[in-house]
Amino acid sequence: MDGTTVTFLRREDMLVLDFTFSNISRSGTAGAVVLGPSTPGTAGTITAHFPPQSALEESTSLAAASTGTKRVRYSGESTVALRVPPGTSVPFTAGGLLSWAALQAAQAGTVLECVWGLFFGPASAHLVWRHVTAPVTGSSGATGIWHTRIAPASAPPHEGGPVGLVGVAPPRGWQPFPSSLSAPHRQQIHNATGARPVTANGVVLSALGANADLAGDWKDFPALGITGYRHRSAGGRDIVVQVDEHGFLLPFGFPVQVTTRTERRLDLGLVQSIRLTVLKPEITYEGVATLPNGGRAFPFSRVRVDQPIDTEISIGTPLERVGYWVHSADAPATALPFALSADDRRGHRVHFTAPLVFIRGDFAYGGLSGPLTTYENITKNLPLPATGRLELAPDDGTTAEKSTVDIAELRIGAEPSQATSAQLMAAGRLAAHPRLLSVGARIPALDALAPPPTATSVSAAVPPAVTGTVHQLKLYDKYVTNGLAAARQVYASLPQVADFAPPPAASGAVAALGLPVSGLSAATGLVGGKLDTVAAGQFDPAAYFTPPASPGDLPTRLLGVIDLTQLIEPGPIGAGDGTSTPKIITTVEHQQGTLKPPTAVRTEMSWRPQIKATSIGPLTTTRSDSLDIKSTSIARFDGSPPTVEVRGELRDFKLSFAGILSIEFRRMAFTGRPGTTPDLDVKIGNVGFDGDLRFLDKLREYLPSPANGPRINVDLQGVEVGYGLAVPTVGAGVFLLQNLVLSITVRLPFDGTPVRTTFGVSSRDHPFLVTVSLLGGGGFFSLTVESGEVTTLEAQLEFGAAAALDLGVASGSVSITAGVYLKLDHGASLLEGFLRAVGALDVLGIISVSVEFYLSLKSTSVPKNPANPSGPKRTEIVGTARVTVRVRVAFFSQSVSMSMERRFGGGGDPSYSDAFPTQNAWSKRCAAFAALEDAS
């Protein structure tokens, strides 16, 4: 009979079975055929094959429940194996094949898919299958459906009873639509039966499907993700299915229970709800769960779930195969925001919201490295809104808060635990620790000069200190690994460098300290340059203060010309007291105690660096301790403007301007405030000309009067230093020289624009005068240079001669004057000249005649194209001549004038771009010519 299939169909009671045989042979004669083992001494097996006993039926969440058609997929067949002992025979009849009580139930070969996708078999061979062999018809004439019931061998007749079932084949790992059980549920149930069998309080097989009442309890097996299982079905269709799972919420490790319950409703079919319950809403990190590196990667000591504690959820995006993102039940496509609060080691509380990931209990105690990497790749770009104050780098040796910031957002990742799986399982902790990937915080030192918040934003619930520009901070790796001391107090880095360059006007236009902030230090506050260099204990001013990238950028300067990046001596970073690197510390001021809302943010910078005794550009220094700078800024929250005060002192230095004027300073102390002219306390030593004008100092020794100056004027835009040398009137016979003044003025802007130097000989208002007998004249000269280029040149020279004759009866006079004026201003030019000749004759006062000739030349700019006044310009010289004759006889007078004007110069021929402003104009010109013929 091996390899033979016998089909048994009985319509009266809907019996449908297929029988297959192993080591079974048929013997006997017609009417008395029996089945027995083929091999003597070896048992045979008869296997009954049942049609599908269960169905996979589509389920919906309550929020998406509908009365529409649901999808269904049937299971495969179920089999019951019966052992035929040696020496035993079974009649080859309908009654004989159904007389299972005389046979032994076999574990091997019995596969029951009474739950779709799960393949159960009996955990013990001490069981029986009970059923009738013939149809049973009641008094009403109805015939019952044939069915068989599994029961313990010791159970009374006609009763079932608890039977242990275990998984005998891998469950189905895929399903086409959601149903009562998911693929992970089936896998967990299958795995859990290896620890403790499922209890079958009743399993009935029939042609219409199985009736099942299954229960599993694995609460005392922490290594399993599933803790409970309840399944009731009738006719192969689920009625109530419930799965209880334990796990943890990543990244904080809150232990939770997730209950998935599916119920059949007459109007809606299978409706599923998933409920998450936080078993321990507050968690600390102690003992086995102690954070690595002393907790420096996660500065919180306690985290709490405020809400929800018990809520309906939906399953979101899987995190590999270990869990899934928890989504909202009402909005399945949206992550459920958990409201959380966390306390740092100082007791500061931070409130924030975060989506969390459910990690199944069977994956919770190890092997999470890959999933945690996937998790951090997501959360590093997932800012969590937050409010409160956080101390990023607590120092156990002091009560002072040197690393506390006001935060606006958090980015939190997770790293594997170093504890063993057994330790974690015993303690009930997740094999992962939270860590702070970055924090979005307001750095008051950078925002001190920004517009303050309005007064209405001040409240005790949300401190106004959280307003302002949010900067991303990342805990410095060397601090996390080795602590503050090893990192030279540097505890945080800025992935995006922030510019700390207050406008010069904020400090009274005295100091321009451009610091690209790359990190934070508990000792010095803001840190610039490479953090690894600072952490190694070295200070490099060229890296700390980045030079300007372009001429328009604001460098790190003092008084507009002193470049601090070249002046400061590199060397050890010091103790963080401002003697080497700037110390920039920010404190939050409260009114009447720290429990009151903050009123202002105070930022103080102090710096007493060691400087080089050298010459750099215009500056020459002689002492290493001659610079001291202190800045204090206060940003208030009452809406008033911020206040900034910069105090500094530079001693024993010399400034040389344009190589022609030098001033020795014994001391220069300054105090700058926004909106006001800085106060300067200057003590000056020697002042004199330098370079090519050094001879003027020698000349000064022979002058009877001292030189004028120096003059120092300070305003919001810069410092102006002037020095003048007045030459007294010089007379020698017919020669006379008057009003000759040699002067030099240097303008030092505070806004980074070039230094402007002006050299002058007298001035327009007070020109020098030269007289030689009948000839005389005067003029002035001014030259302005910026960055080595002449930007303005202005000069004027006038001269003339005059003569007169008086004979008593008649008198006459004649005079000739001429002059020229030239001005060049940033490329624009102006040239003017004139000639004037006048002659007059008077006879006895009765008759007078005068003749005047006037000639002027003037350069002017006119449009190249008169039709386009705003277009390109060209220069023309305009000449004007005028002759005027006046005659007076007694009481009669007459005046006649004749004039003419001529224009010349300027290059009248148009350029190519003037003639052909567009491609179309050139194309038209080319088209006007005949095409060239090929000479070949």
Description:
- With 936 residues, this protein is mainly beta.
- Strands 50, 51, 52, 53, 54, 55, 56, 57, 58, 59, 60, 61, 62 and 63 form a 14-stranded antiparallel β-sheet that branches.
- Residues 449-466, 505-510 and 549-555 have low confidence and may be disordered.
Condensed summary:
By secondary structure, this protein is mainly beta. The chain is built from twelve helices and 63 strands.
Annotation keywords:
12 helices; 11-stranded antiparallel beta sheet; 14-stranded antiparallel beta sheet; 936 residues; mainly beta; 51% strand
Number of helices: 12
Strand percent estimate: over 45%
Shape: elongated
How far apart, in Å, are the first and last alpha carbons?
105 Å
Uncertain stretches: 449-466, 505-510, 549-555
Instruction: Tell me the total number of β-strands.
Output: 63
The helix-and-strand class reads mainly beta
Q: Evaluate the radius of gyration.
A: 51 Å
Percent of residues in helices comes to under 10%
The description of the largest β-sheet is: 14 strands, antiparallel
Query: What do the pLDDT scores average to?
Result: 83
What is the fold's blueprint, element by element?
Blueprint: E1 5-10, E2 15-22, E3 24-27, E4 34-37, E5 44-50, E6 55-57, E7 59-61, E8 72-74, E9 78-84, E10 90-91, H1 94-97, E11 104-105, E12 112-115, E13 118-122, E14 127-130, E15 147-152, E16 163-169, H2 183-192, E17 198-206, E18 211-217, E19 226-234, E20 237-250, E21 254-265, E22 269-278, E23 282-284, E24 300-307, E25 310-319, E26 323-328, E27 338-344, E28 349-354, E29 357-360, H3 369-379, E30 384-391, E31 404-416, H4 421-427, E32 432-442, H5 444-447, E33 470-475, H6 477-482, E34 490-500, E35 511-512, E36 515-521, E37 525-528, H7 531-535, E38 538-539, H8 541-544, E39 557-558, E40 562-563, H9 564-567, E41 571-572, E42 583-590, E43 598-607, E44 615-616, E45 619-621, E46 627-636, E47 643-657, E48 661-672, E49 679-689, H10 694-700, E50 708-714, E51 718-727, E52 730-732, E53 735-738, E54 740-749, E55 756-761, E56 768-772, E57 775-786, E58 789-806, E59 810-825, E60 828-843, E61 847-863, E62 873-889, E63 892-904, H11 912-915, H12 919-927
